[in-house]
């Protein structure tokens, strides 16, 4: 029902053509990077009312789990069409499983 992409700090998920030095710095940039989350809920999930309801439920679920992720992580949650009919506990269980799978070390996968 959900697909999760997790980028941890120190992993190569940033473009290489970005200058290492920012053009200008502010005091806020000197603090530790905050953990962020984003949501992708396409039109395949349903009409706008359904998509927004799914996004609100996911936002609430992720807010509870964000503190458990390392500082500076980026989490992207993509809702599949089945998320529209899923109950709140089911979405929470799927989110936990998806985050656990994203945090697991990736080795060579058998073909």
Concise description?
This protein has 111 residues and is of the alpha+beta class. The chain has helices at residues 48-65, 88-103, and strands at 2-7, 36-41, 74-79. It has a 3-stranded mixed sheet with strand order 1-3-2, covered by helices on one side.
Keywords:
16% strand; single chain; alpha+beta; 111 residues; 2 helices; RNA-binding; hydrolase
Write structural notes for this entry.
This protein has helices at 48-65, 88-103, and strands at residues 2-7, 36-41, 74-79. With 111 residues, the chain is α+β, with helices and mostly antiparallel strands. The protein has a domain at 1-6 and 49-103. Strands 1-3-2 form a 3-stranded mixed sheet, covered by helices on one side. It is globular, with a radius of gyration of 16 Å. The model is unreliable at 14-19 (pLDDT under 50).
Proportion of residues in β-strands: 15-25%
| Strand segment count | 3
Helix content: 25-40%
End-to-end gap: 24 Å
Annotation field: number of helices: 2
Largest sheet: 3 strands, mixed
H/E series: EEHEH
Topology, element by element:
Elements: E1 2-7, E2 36-41, H1 48-65, E3 74-79, H2 88-103
Parallel strand pairs: 2-3
Antiparallel strand pairs: 1-3
């Amino acid at each position: 029902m959900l697909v999760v992409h997790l980028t941890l700090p120190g992993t190569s998920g940033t473009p290489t053509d970005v200058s290492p030095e920012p053009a200008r710095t502010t005091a806020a940039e000197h603090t530790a990077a905050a953990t962020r989350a984003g949501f992708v809920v396409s039109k395949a999930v349903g009409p706008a009312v359904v998509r927004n309801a799914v996004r609100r439920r996911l936002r609430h679920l992720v807010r509870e789990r964000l503190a458990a992720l390392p500082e500076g992580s980026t989490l992207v949650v993509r809702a599949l069409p089945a998320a529209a009919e899923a109950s709140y506990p089911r979405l929470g269980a799927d989110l936990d499983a998806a985050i656990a799978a994203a945090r697991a070390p990736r080795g060579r996968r058998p073909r």
